[in-house]
Amino acid sequence: MLRLEVLGACYQVSNRGNDRRHVFRTVGAQIAFETCLFEACAKSGSVLHAFVIMGNHHHLVVETSAGKLVAGMQWLQATFANRFNRQRGERGLGARHSDIQDGPGQGPHSVGDEPRRA
To answer: Which residues are CB-neighbours of 60 under 8 A, at least 6 positions away?
Structure first.
């Protein structure tokens, strides 16, 4: 018997570098972001369904219970920005969150160029 538990709502989260500058120029920067992303999901109890990292922005599909999205994304952005700033002397990032689920049990819609499965 297949048992599905709905954790919460699915959100498409995107974030772009300041002035659309490249944040993820190197493989090292991408790996550092992935590390922070996985840590943020573990800390907030969120499920990462898919993600894609591009040169100057990223897209995430995150499922989480009410109230945990903001805290998880704040931790992710602050931690990555602090690590990034120490390495390159750049300044912060700004995020947008949008609900992409019509109701419990419905899957996420497309988020862009071939998201990676978590």
So the answer is: 11, 12, 13, 14, 37, 48, 50, 51, 111
